[in-house]
Amino acid sequence: MWSTGSLRLGIVGVRRCVPKLIKANNYSPLLNVSFKKYYKVTVIGTIKAAGLEITKPPLTDARSVFSEKELEEARINRLKGLGILTKFPEKWIPYMELMRIEKPIGTLLLLSPCMWSITMAAYMTSAPLLSTLWMLSVFSVGAFVMRGAGCTVNDMWDRNLDNKVARTTERPITSGRVSMPQAWTFLGAQLAVGLVVLLQLPLDCFLLGASSLLLVMTYPFFKRVTYYPQVVLSACFNWGALLGFPAMGVWNWPVMIPLYLSGFFWCMTYDTIYAHQDKKFDVNVGIKSTALAWGNSTKKICYGMSVAQMGCYVTSGFLAGMGPFFYLGALAGGYRLFNMIKKVDLDNPANCWMWFKENINTGHVFWLGILLDYLWKLFF
Asked: Any transmembrane segments, and where (predicted)?
């Protein structure tokens, strides 16, 4: 489906599209330099850093450690989880799985800090509702595309590890349904769309957003060298908490930094819970995580990080001059956090997944408080 010809066509399209967008948005020549750096850091830089051979397929020998029954169970679970993807042409499905479209939780978690910052900035400036809705829609598309690109990169890095974990043996690359050349082409297409989204933002916001891409592209590498890859993931996953402010014309670091740190500690907590799903397999295949580093101390540490998260979140809201709805949202969100840590069974993968998904609603609860303050200020 994704051939060399389609890759060339995509590159030609980007070359024609980007200069027009630059001219239309009155960007300075600096952006032309930044675009070159964007390409080198994301595409060329990732190829060099990963040491990936573009034609090298994943090794399948590792699958032999699983019985036919286990492999069939993984296949059945994948098919059950496709949901709405079954309505699309069969050739599209592996690429949609690469983006995890059937599992929107990652996109929604990535979007939450963006929603916090955009709406808080809108409150601070009394921005028109239509302007706020437009920026929320731009960031929604960006979160969808860049989360998909991140998942694609992750699967490319992990193609020889995913065959060693029962839950991931059916991923598109490791199962052979998408080749490495096809994955590279698809990644390039996603990054091109991500660039178009960034070009909708002011220049300083564009540069801030582009600066996170090296973390996005190299995160999977850290799972091999440190027990704290969640630090890297949390650092890039909450970049939207910074990005939303300049997108709305606000540069207020005393407000931005605490909000960013709040999202960072939140991500550290929920992704550690997520990592507990595969800890038994991760030990055997050499994948490192905070779940393994903290072991039986995980809950105590997560409680501490949640206290830090709440402290940073309230500090940000206080410095932004937020109203009573913000603090009610913070109280409700904090309750959900501590309740999750108390009740999650870290030795039960299904239970870890259930509580991990609950963080979507937790993020929305935090946002609701900011939103209600903004709407009250705007209309009353």
From this structure: 105-123, 129-149, 183-200, 206-222, 231-251, 313-338
